[in-house]
Amino acid sequence: MTRGDWTVDWTVHRPYWMKSKEYWNNSFDERYRKLQEDVDKKKRPPLKVRSNDRISHQWIKNNLGVNVKTGWSVDPFGHGPTVPYLLKKSEVTGGAVIQRLHFAWKEWFARTQNGDFFWRQNWDWSGHTDTLVHNMPFAIYSIRASCGPHPQVCLNYDFRKVKNEFTDYSELAVFIDDENVKQKADVLMDQYGRTGSVSPYNVALIPLGDDFRYDHDVEWDQQYTNYKKLFDFINANKDRYRGAEVGFGTPSDFFRALRDRAAGHFPSLRGDFFVYSDVFSDGRPAYWSGYYTTRPYWKVLDRELEAKLRSTEMLYTFALNDGRRHGLSTVKLLEHDYEKLIKARQHLALFQHHDAITGTSKAAVMTDYALKLFEGLQNCASIQSYAVQSLLSKAADRGAPLAAKVVVPDSDRQTYDQPTYRLALNVDESRPRNVIVFNPHGRRRTEPIRILVSNPNVRVVDSAGTAVEHQVNPVWNVSETAEQPLAMSKLCFELLIVAVLEPLSLTTFTLHKTPPEPERLARVYCKNCAGHSVFTVRPMRLGDVQLENEHLQVVFDGKTGLMSSVVDKSTGVLQHVSIDFAAYQSAQLRSGAYLFMPDPNLRETEKKVLDDYPGPSTVVVTSGPLSSEITVVYGIVTHTVRLYHGRGIESKGLYVENVVDFKKPPKNRETELFMRLSSGISNGEPAVIYTDSNGFQMQKRVTVKRVGIEGNYYPATSTVYIEDDKHRLTVLVNHAQGVAGWEPGRVELMLDRRTLYDDARGMGEGVVDNKPTLTKYWILLESVTSSGGGGHHRDHVSNPSLVANMLSEGLLYPANVFVVEPNAEHLLRPTAAFANTAMPCDVHLMNVRTATDPVFQQFPSSSALVVLHRKGYDCRVDTGYRIPECRLRRDKGVFDRGTVFAGFRDLRVSKTTVTGVHHLDTVDRLEQVEVSPMELSVLNVTFVV
């Protein structure tokens, strides 16, 4: 309305069904019965769902006959590029709507009229990943903030008036009649015109909705009736409004009009929109970088379920189709367990909500989320046990029904808020014990496996009867005495083996009792701890502590027990890489579940949390033939650094564990604890770091000092690194957390946060339900060469090294360990393999997920979605040695000629979209499958019985 002859198409995303409160109080099945009636009236396909099914693209396609064409993402706290990529790969080609961006981005988009753009992936030079995105121009999606730039005006156009409900909008809004329609239309069109003025395309999208809306039938009638009167008046008086036309519509209508007006020509954008910042409270920027770390216990629990569910999906798919092929009675049990699998999927998906995985819900709600995650873990454990038992049953027993469960996971949780515990195996002369290990990766791996045993005198053999190297470590318990805070357990010991595992395989290791072998016992050096007669405990020596293996020599400060330097033995170069712990003091009422804000009066002063303790209360060094480690215990954190001595990739890095315990409030109030690595790497001034985006790609981050440390924290879900032209320091994480590179040569990782006060962003309470949390890391110090290229042929594209990718996959998706019950070993075969060839080591097998039957959706189909990701890696980063378990291909192929998958030679394979809804192409043989670097590819594999 502000320029010449342009017109405004006003669109509203109207929910398909509007139901009363009484409707939603009905049971789930009753709601679906009523929903079925509505569908029948619309002559849509019948609903065939159960109450435990999950709403998804497949559900919408199967039950409503509709393909999802637009994305709607208006409430994440910042946006990354992976979601638009996934939408593109799901044939969501209409466009995507995003909302919450840094206020400076909003201003820039409005000023330059670039709020409609193609979002392009960093590595894409052809534009094939372009996804059309519309940025809503105002701060939030509510009615008060979406009709135009003036909230007090927009409130007058919210016509909800529900009996006994009193709100700011119900007081202000006046229903439209013949007397006021002209004046109301004039004001409304002024707001629409201002909204449209930030775009050059003569079309505006104005949503009409808010949180917790349309829960009464009367609201829809009120909103629709009043707006219809306004629209009719505007459309009947085009001369008055310069030809503007308004009407109800959908996002698809909006994007269609947008494409017509732009003739397909939009600017393109690379990168992401972190960190999100608003100016809601007092006109000062507030950075939403706290939620990256808030409630890390839940974030770790989420990753645990993700890894467990992934392995369960694979084992279930293999066991189900193997059972169908051989006519096993286990099929009925596995089909019955499919509902458990669906529930585990639902619970994991539910926790991806933007107030769940973020940790930004009230404490009671977070408890409910955790209980669902715990239920998902229990369901996965049960399914895994029966699947492994079915896959390893001997031929003579395969037709018989499954007896009692004889295979159980070696670890479990009693409740969601208790740490994982492991079963201790009792091994004696008459009763060897079998342990089964599942490798959930598509290539051969060497994996450190830790098993608890009741007797230290054991030997280990593989399924061929070959002896496997092992090491026996003490198990430490927390003691109540200040003189000896740690004490060795007298009931169990830790058995460490480095297992060689074939691709997608189940491998059995047998533990036998043996005469004592002192060379297998770890040597223990200890300060302030209680020993055990089995181990010789030596006092700590004065001075620094040194650990080394074939590749690294690591020095730890003799006073603090923390790492101070590393020597790369392949080059002889010493790097001063140190670890320390510190904290920020939270700004009261400003730092909370969402926001991170250090106390402005102490901004330049770190809280030296370790200074509250007179040195570590305990230092323990454990050294043996397979690994060496040092553990230091402070009051707030127990810190372990471990080196492996083998020749696999695990010996290339430093494995780190932290157990953070804030104790019960009011201890450590307003504390934001972080671990910091300091090095001599010259990564720019201002400093530059790289963080991953959803574990899918890397994003360059340049420190901006003027916005403070809170504006320079970024989310890391798997990887963060810094580098110069000679060295790279990489940290791999096992869960999502905030990271920063505030000073050159430094990386800091936020570990936990306790803020007593709400930050006024909707939660209404502080975060004080911290729990002791175990976090795991790999630290790599790698050499960078000037040749190789890798992913660095363009400045804004960077990739981890091949070693980093492989270590990260092992950290996120470790091998699954199972224990065979005593006297049941004779029932099972020792091995089973589900791939006869290995995938290239730059290809990550993301999942092998059984698809739901499209008609009987409580049952599994005979098809599975095989999800592949070919990861980019940096050839400039010299690994320093050949990776034994790594094989690369010169082409884009994934499978070798003659590959047999899950024992099936007769497979029907087709390429599909990510959600499995759209068929793309038929594949005659697996060796025809190609995946380009950085890309995802999904196969629909049907097992022909």
From TrEMBL:
E.C. number? 3.2.1.-
**What are the GO cellular component annotations?**
Golgi membrane
Give the reaction(s) catalysed.
N(4)-{beta-D-GlcNAc-(1->2)-alpha-D-Man-(1->3)-[alpha-D-Man-(1->3)-[alpha-D-Man-(1->6)]-alpha-D-Man-(1->6)]-beta-D-Man-(1->4)-beta-D-GlcNAc-(1->4)-beta-D-GlcNAc}-L-asparaginyl-[protein] + 2 H2O = 2 alpha-D-mannopyranose + an N(4)-{beta-D-GlcNAc-(1->2)-alpha-D-Man-(1->3)-[alpha-D-Man-(1->6)]-beta-D-Man-(1->4)-beta-D-GlcNAc-(1->4)-beta-D-GlcNAc}-L-asparaginyl-[protein]
Q: Where does the record place the Glycoside hydrolase family 38 central domain?
A: 286-373
Swiss-Prot/TrEMBL keywords: Glycosidase, Hydrolase, Metal-binding, Zinc
InterPro entries for the chain? Gal_mutarotase_sf_dom, Glyco_hydro/deAcase_b/a-brl, Glyco_hydro_38_C, Glyco_hydro_38_cen, Glyco_hydro_38_cen_sf, Glyco_hydro_38_N, Glyco_hydro_38_N_sf, Glyco_hydro_57/38_cen_sf
Q: Which cofactor does it need?
A: Zn(2+)
GO biological process assignments: mannose metabolic process; N-glycan processing
Name the SMART domains on file. Alpha-mann_mid (SM00872)
The molecular function terms in GO held by this entry are: carbohydrate binding; mannosyl-oligosaccharide 1,3-1,6-alpha-mannosidase activity; metal ion binding
Q: Domain of life, per the record?
A: Eukaryota
How is the cofactor bound here? Binds 1 zinc ion per subunit.
**Keyword Hydrolase annotated:** yes
Q: What does this protein do?
A: Catalyzes the first committed step in the biosynthesis of complex N-glycans. It controls conversion of high mannose to complex N-glycans; the final hydrolytic step in the N-glycan maturation pathway.
| Record's subunit section | Homodimer; disulfide-linked.
Protein family according to the UniProt entry = Belongs to the glycosyl hydrolase 38 family.
Q: What is this protein called?
A: Alpha-mannosidase
Q: Which organism is it from?
A: Sipha flava
